[in-house]
Design a protein that fits this description.
By secondary structure, this protein is α/β, with parallel strands linked by helices. The protein is built from 11 helices and 10 strands.
């Protein structure tokens, strides 16, 4: 009998998906009123090795009987009838802790903030790329978002950098808080809620390196990721020697920032520094 040759990539994908199949029920439910989105998202999910079920409304999902079989829920924000945020509230009130990934063509700050504060795993703008969705689903299934609900604080005097970095952080499933200066961060009361600090090097008033020194002197061990448009060797060396997790030059890629944040969050468990 003919057997298809097995390549190393297939073996790796099989091992990854097999691990996920063992620890989850593997049904990814997609709730979206747009039939084309349901179809393309289903094809994408199934290409990753997961099972998919689709529903044109929140009401049809709730009436389907698939609630207790669903390991992860991908839901549109704006839909006729019960919208995605209302579905999230309904499930929370019922004590249902399914990880929820929101997808939307209308990325409003208020909706994003409300979804993330209520425990969403991620908030992705349409169109999203295949790898971004895969990583988000895997993180949701492995429960990574459940242990990273603390705040990623961003300190940068450039409003456009704060805005884009916040959108990026929240698309990964983390909560974000932004500050225009080191002083405003220190006064904010967010210090003890911050799991990771992303800070610009050069800012008016207290700069990033001075903030690092201030926190160290206060015995505060928040992992720090430096970002800068001016990557000089002396600043990089000083930051890393003082314990920074990473020193990233602007612009940085989405994947680079995600990997760096994850390294920062596990730093106390043996994570490595990124230079």
């Amino acid at each position: 009998m003919y057997q298809r040759p097995i390549d190393s990539f297939s073996v790796l994908e099989y091992l990854l998906s097999s691990w996920e199949f063992r620890v989850t029920k593997n049904l990814i439910s997609v709730v979206d009123d747009d039939e084309s989105v349901r179809r393309t998202t289903t094809l994408l999910i199934e290409s990753f090795g997961f099972r998919a079920a689709t529903f044109e409304s929140a009401e049809s999902f709730l009436a389907s009987g698939h609630l207790h079989d669903t390991s992860c829920l991908i839901v549109d924000v704006q839909m006729p009838g019960m919208n995605g945020l209302q579905l999230q509230s309904h499930l929370a009130a019922a004590g249902c802790g399914i990880p929820i990934i929101f997808i939307t063509a209308y990325d409003h700050k208020d909706s994003r903030q409300r979804a993330m504060q209520a425990g969403a795993a991620a908030f992705l703008g349409k169109p999203f790329n295949d790898e971004q969705l895969l990583q988000t689903i895997r993180s949701a299934l492995r429960g990574e978002f459940g242990v990273t609900k603390n705040v990623i604080s961003v300190v940068d005097d450039d409003e456009s950098v704060r805005r884009t970095t916040t959108l990026l952080i929240e698309s990964f499933g983390f909560r974000a808080a932004t500050f225009e200066s080191a002083e405003s961060f220190l006064r904010s009361g967010q210090l003890h809620d911050t799991s990771c600090l992303i800070v610009d090097v050069q800012m008016p008033g207290m700069n990033g390196l001075q903030l690092q020194s201030h926190l160290a002197a206060a015995g505060c061990g928040i992992p720090i990721i430096f970002i800068t448009a001016y990557d000089d060797r002396e600043s990089r060396q000083r930051a890393m020697q003082a314990g920074a997790v990473a020193f990233l030059g602007k612009p940085f890629s989405d994947e680079h920032l995600l990997q760096t944040i994850r390294s920062a969050l596990v730093q106390d468990k043996g994570g490595t520094k990124t230079t």
